[in-house]
């Protein structure tokens, strides 16, 4: 009875003893304090616990702003392809194939860059990854404005693509600072910066191109990448990455800065890696011997992965991740092919209709004005797309959100199979771009959530590379088929790709809504 009273009310017990024996009460008080100090020292918390206690505050807003500028830079460099291609074709008398190569070569560079920067980021840090991407993108983007001929322009735009391939690194970096319960919503907010970039680029082209030409547009579009370099020195490394690499003191320093800026307290105890927590959870269902083997094997894989990026690919195709990885590649291919195809169709359908109807364009300037107007209007479709994805991603989940957006995009494009009047084309492409941009936003939320920290940016980078293959092929379809008066074939091909992407999303193995980010793959099956 005395022991039960002590467990339930230790301080009351000490007071009761003081009435009887003051020396005994003092010893009990000292014992209680020592036990509490020992408990505080043995208490641990993870990065997820620190993010939950911190919430989304001023620190995360600064991280969002920096990552958002990077996304604006990527969007501007991609959107300018809709304007530069036709202008360069007229100035240098290029063929349709040469014009399409100006766009496709950027995606070839992104195909290489997406994987390369992902491996760099997973092994050497998120900051180092997006530093190199900003240097390459800003330098090659600015120099391309002075390209004297077609070959030099193609070469420099290829380097721009290599730099743009590191775009997912910034997304992963931002994601690893966001608390799990609001991760979907804030990733949609982050993706909205892409919309800002597309609208700003269309406005810039409308203002600059008629008076100064495409070279000024290329030069001005590289400015946001230089902004990333300007503020790089104040950016923190991801604490999740630091923990995974065993750099606990550095991770603590980042989290303490976050807590001070958000005016909150970190949880009591010592910071530990989520990897250790997940392995401890695994030990409840497996024997100590098996756990030791798992830790040893994981350490070996990590060490080898640091020296050879190819083993990261093997991990993505491991039995626990292969289904999710292959389906994710299909979804990225379909989203990229469809999104950039719809952007190009905005200009190419109207041009193709004129060519096939044998209508003469009154002047180059009036044709350009129509192009800027159509792209500018269609760019606004991404605003309701971002709002819609923010409303549904944390309510109905990632899988259902993506699938519904892809299938709805098919519905919007279907009327163009039978008729392509100017008004119907604008309405259909506006609705299709709204839905496909929402789907593209959500797939970039889902992708980082299915991979462990050790291969997260590699996984997104490889998936993004597969998407870039879609980006390489879509200009050949949008330009070649439309210019050869096969608009119906082009539309049906986009319909098929979008529909198959929706099916792939429907077969994703698990939903990630509300799940914490993992540092190991032990809970991924």
UniProtKB/TrEMBL annotation:
Query: Which residue ranges does UniProt annotate as crossing the membrane?
Result: 61-81, 101-118, 130-148, 154-175, 187-208, 214-235, 321-342, 375-393, 400-418, 430-447, 459-482, 488-508
Ranges for domain Major facilitator superfamily (MFS) profile come to 63-513
Q: Which UniProt keywords apply?
A: Membrane, Transmembrane, Transmembrane helix, Transport
- Predominant location of this chain? membrane
Question: Per its UniProt record, what Gene3D superfamilies does this chain match?
Answer: MFS general substrate transporter like domains (1.20.1250.20)
Example of a GO MF term: transmembrane transporter activity
Q: How does it sit in the membrane?
A: Multi-pass membrane protein
Instruction: Write down the InterPro entries for this protein, in alphabetical order.
Output: MFS_dom, MFS_sugar_transport-like, MFS_trans_sf, Sugar_transporter_CS
Gene Ontology CC = membrane
Location(s), subcellular: Membrane
State if Transmembrane helix is listed as a keyword: yes
Protein known as: Major facilitator superfamily (MFS) profile domain-containing protein
């Amino acid at each position: 009875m005395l022991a039960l009273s002590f467990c339930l009310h230790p301080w009351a017990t000490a007071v009761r003893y003081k009435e009887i024996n003051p020396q005994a009460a003092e010893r009990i008080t000292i014992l209680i304090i020592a036990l509490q100090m020992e408990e505080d020292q043995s208490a641990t918390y993870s990065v997820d616990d620190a993010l939950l206690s911190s919430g989304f505050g001023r620190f995360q807003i600064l991280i969002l702003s920096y990552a958002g500028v990077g996304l604006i830079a990527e969007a501007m460099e991609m959107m300018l392809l809709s304007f530069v291609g036709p202008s360069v074709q007229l100035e240098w008398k290029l063929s349709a194939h040469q014009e399409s190569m100006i766009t496709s070569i950027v995606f070839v560079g992104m195909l290489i860059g997406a994987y390369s920067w992902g491996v760099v980021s997973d092994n050497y840090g998120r900051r180092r990854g997006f530093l190199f991407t900003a240097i390459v993108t800003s330098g090659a983007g600015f120099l391309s404005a002075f390209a004297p001929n077609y070959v030099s322009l193609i070469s420099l735009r290829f380097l721009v693509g290599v730099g743009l391939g590191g775009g997912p690194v910034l997304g992963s970096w931002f994601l690893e600072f966001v608390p799990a319960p609001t991760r979907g919503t804030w990733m949609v907010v982050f993706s909205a910066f892409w919309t800002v970039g597309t609208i700003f680029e269309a406005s810039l082209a409308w203002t600059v191109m008629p008076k100064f030409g495409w070279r000024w547009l290329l030069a001005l579009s590289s400015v946001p990448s230089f902004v990333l370099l300007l503020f790089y020195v104040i950016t923190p490394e991801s604490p999740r990455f630091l923990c995974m690499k065993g750099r606990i003191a550095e991770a603590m320093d980042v989290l303490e800065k976050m807590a001070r800026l958000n005016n909150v307290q970190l949880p009591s105890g010592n910071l530990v890696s989520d990897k250790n927590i997940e392995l401890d959870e695994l030990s409840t269902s497996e024997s100590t011997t098996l756990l030791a083997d798992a830790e040893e094997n994981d350490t070996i894989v990590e060490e080898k992965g640091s020296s050879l990026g190819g083993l990261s690919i093997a991990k993505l195709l491991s039995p626990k991740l292969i289904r999710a990885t292959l389906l994710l590649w299909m979804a990225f291919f379909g989203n990229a092919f469809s999104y950039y195809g719809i952007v190009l169709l905005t200009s190419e359908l109207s041009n193709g209709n004129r060519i096939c109807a044998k209508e003469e364009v009154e002047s180059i300037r009036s044709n350009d004005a129509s192009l800027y107007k159509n792209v500018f209007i269609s760019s606004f479709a991404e605003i309701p797309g971002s709002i819609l994805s923010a409303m549904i991603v944390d309510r109905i989940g990632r899988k259902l959100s993506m699938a519904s957006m892809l299938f709805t995009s098919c519905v919007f494009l279907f009327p163009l199979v039978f008729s392509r009047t100017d008004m119907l084309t604008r309405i259909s492409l506006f609705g299709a771009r709204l839905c496909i941009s929402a789907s593209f936003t959500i797939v970039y939320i889902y992708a980082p959530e299915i991979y462990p920290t050790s291969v997260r940016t590699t996984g997104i980078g490889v998936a993004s590379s597969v998407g870039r293959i879609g980006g390489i092929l879509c200009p050949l379809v949008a330009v070649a088929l439309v210019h050869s008066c096969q608009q119906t074939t082009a539309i049906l091909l986009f319909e098929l790709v979008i529909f198959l992407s929706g099916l792939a999303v429907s077969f994703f193995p698990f939903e990630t809504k509300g799940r914490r980010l993992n540092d190991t793959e032990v809970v991924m099956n």
